[in-house]
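Saturday, quiet lab. Running sequence design on the structure tokens for the scaffold JK sent over.
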């Protein structure tokens, strides 16, 4: 197994890189999807969130109202820390299970664990390579406005709420610069894939 941790700020091209590696044959595990799965109705994490934040964060069908919960924790570091203390360990446990399953199915698998909060959640899987997608703040803001329909002030707040890029770059083995054309991002990703194939062959 060859395990890649893929991280980067919001709208920094992470999904594009993950998709390209998947096209090359990697197994893709998306931490955002796992974060949704671990708080589905009936999960211990959802019960813990309700115990901490009250029934007001539930929809009428008993599922988590992410918007209401977001309003509760946004701008409140203590509340966010409590939420993270519930969700992050649950995601870590599920991701470890999925990584083990992928390895059991194919011992030679290349697994891309796409995890926006690699730094913030101090994810400590034994990565062979940490890949960081990087784009300047203005590009991130522009993409959030143009591609996701946020207004510029919202977009700036979303970018600024995340860890500073220098903390990510400090743990990077490979940085993919996504500020240029899509083709430029793809060619860097293809070069990364060739490197992975070579490293795997040497093992």
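Result came back. Writing it out in full:
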């Amino acid at each position: 197994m060859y395990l890649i941790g893929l991280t980067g700020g919001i709208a920094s091209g992470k999904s594009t890189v993950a998709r390209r590696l998947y096209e090359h044959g990697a197994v893709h595990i998306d931490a955002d999807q796992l974060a949704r799965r671990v708080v589905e109705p009936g999960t211990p994490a959802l019960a813990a969130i309700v115990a901490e934040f009250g029934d007001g964060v539930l929809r009428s069908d008993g599922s988590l109202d992410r918007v209401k919960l977001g309003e509760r924790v946004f701008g409140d570091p203590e509340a966010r820390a409590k939420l993270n203390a519930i969700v992050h360990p649950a995601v870590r446990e599920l991701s470890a299970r999925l990584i083990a399953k992928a390895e059991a199915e194919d011992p030679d698998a290349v697994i891309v664990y796409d995890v926006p909060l690699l730094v913030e959640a101090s994810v400590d899987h034994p990565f062979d390579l940490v890949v960081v997608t990087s784009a300047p703040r203005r590009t991130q803001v522009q993409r959030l406005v143009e591609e996701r329909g946020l207004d510029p002030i919202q977009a700036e707040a979303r970018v600024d709420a995340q860890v500073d890029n220098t903390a990510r770059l400090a743990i990077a083995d490979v940085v993919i610069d996504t500020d240029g054309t899509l083709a430029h991002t793809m060619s860097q990703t293809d070069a990364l894939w060739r490197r992975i194939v070579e490293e795997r062959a040497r093992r």
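Notes for JK: The two ends are 11 Å apart (CA to CA). The chain has two domains: 1-26+109-203, 32-107. Ask whether to fix the surface positions before the next round.
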